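ARCHIVE CARD
Drawer: 12
Card no.: 0347
Subject: one protein chain, sequence and derived structure
Cross-reference: see card 0346
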Amino acid sequence: ITRLPRYLALHYRRFTKNNFFIEKNPTLVNFPVKNLELRDVLPLPERPAAAGGAAAGAPHADAFALSSKYDLVANLVHDGKAGSGSYRVHVHRRVEDIWYEVQDLTVTDILPQMVALSEAYFQV
C-alpha cells in the first residue's frame, strides 16, 4: 500500500447464518469519531509517489496522498433482531461539527458520544 483512499468504508459482519437460523452479533466496536490513525497499523511510506489519476499540481494533492487519518462521516446502524428490525444512519455535518441521526423521515441532533456507542454495521 502506497497511499490510502480519500474515504475508507468499513463493513462489520454483524450477521452469521448457519443451517437453522441467523444470529446477530451485538458487540460494540470501540472506534474514534475523529482522527483514526492508520499509520500505526499500516506500513505506509514516508513520501509516496505521485498518485495515478491525480493531476500534478492539483490543489491538496500532496495532503491527500500523505493523509493517514480519518474522521467518521457516516455510521449505519441496524436495530432489532436478525431477519427483522430497522436501519438508521448517523451523519456528520462538518461545517457545523454536528451529528444527525436519520431514520426514515425523522432527523434529529445526536451527541458524538452516542454515535460511538451504537452497534455499527457500516461506516464511512
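Annotation on reverse: The CA atoms of residues 84 and 109 lie 26 Å apart. Residues 51-61 have pLDDT under 50 and may be disordered.
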